[in-house]
Amino acid sequence: MASLITCPHCGARPKEEFSVRGAAMPARPSPMAKDEAWHAYVYIRDNPKGRYQEYWHHAAGCRRWLVVDRDNLTHDVFGVTDAADFVQARGIE
Amino acid sequence: MRYSAYSIFKQALSGNRLWTPAWREPEPKPHYDVIIVGGGGHGLSTAYYLAKEFGITNVAVVEKGYIGSGNVGRNTTIIRSNYLLEGNNPFYEFSLKLWEGIEKDFNYNAMVSQRGIINLFHSDGQRDEYARRGNGMRMHGVYAELLDREQVRRMMPYLNFDHARFPIMGGLYQKRGGTVRHDAVAWGYARGADQRGVDIIQHCEVTGIRRENGVVTGVETTKGFIGCNKLALAAAGNTTTVGRMADLELPIETHVLQAFVSEGLKPVIDHVITYGAGHFYISQSDKGGLVFGAEIDFYSSYAQRGNLQTVEHTMEEGVSLIPGLSRAKVLRSWGGVMDMSMDGSPIIDRTPVDNLYLNCGWCYGGFKATPASGFCFAHLIARNETHHVSRFMRLDRFERGYTIDEAGKGPQPNLH
Q1: How many domains would you assign to chain A?
Q2: ipTM for the complex?
Q3: Is B413 on the interface with A (CB under 8 A)?
């Protein structure tokens, strides 16, 4: 895994400043969605080998939630976006 | 060949030239009763118990690398059954009982060493929690002792008892816990299975699962198609990749866990010790190396290598607990890919595909479970019914609301 993560707000920062929440791909269902949809959101993971989007929190920096787009086999980081921008771009909620 | 003191003597007289390989290297047959995907500890023990306990010998274990190249050779070799929950404790105790007889059972020296495991506690709240866990163990018939600070000091005087932030207040002690030589576990099971007719096919990667009318008919591999009546997955960190070939949707996320071994030292650490203020655990191998590790790296990873941040963190925790550790040199470190489940507990169950069986979700606690996992999985495959000690480890427990969350962390795989 890369030792530096480029935060869109703070620039290149050491990885130690971030904490990892987990997969950003599952989209939160509506509160009225059926149990199956919630089960899939809470428990089921695509878990691909390769390109992966993950929620990271810049805990020791700007304290923004970010989405790190990276490869979980080669550990390349392709880009980091603010989680709000990520969700807007995905067009949900 | 049966191994014994006599066989060593006899071989020595002939200059050790007549030892034969411990298992064959067969080409795959066109069809098997059972194919097991994954030649790690769990896959090999499943094959062994299928042949030995359930009389199913027309079995193949297909492994994409060489056997034991995955997590069974990448762990810190600890065995224990100090679990709290009903869904876990009887299973791990069954496993520990199998460990206690394993060497005679498979006629291989696995160096089972019941040196005792101690979980240190550092606050009143943690003491209460560990007392509760010890009581839970004893209610399941598993002996545990709660030691106070002075008892711990007598056993382990080299720990940092002057720690201002995380004082050692005592520990939960399971005498029957310990370590096992992990490679020998893979080899012992492989040899035992092979002797009973199981084909262990190495360097053979599964690339597809063929299904007809909703049931599995065989697997596509790099050595061609191999047919089977039943297919069993024991692919650890690659479970999702293999499962996807049969459209399984799984509550698994793959993470990397690192472990470390120091240069060989004279005997200093007699037990297995876990640090309650971190996640650090340490023991000393018979060769003298200190074997230790801590948390996973927290980000999802399929790479069998970790990050320096976690290396540093592990060393800091170690030195915080055992100051003398700062003088030891680390010889090797390595990473293994873990099938982290969403509640920290494993899955041994059927799947929506009728003759496809699943064994996964071991997080980073799979090594101690190797015998029971194989036994219960073999039971499930052979009889199509769940062994009673693994009856909670169902695939559908998440949607039914029966998770087995030993650590109480919730659906957050990197925290288990």
Answers
A1: 1
A2: 0.94
A3: yes
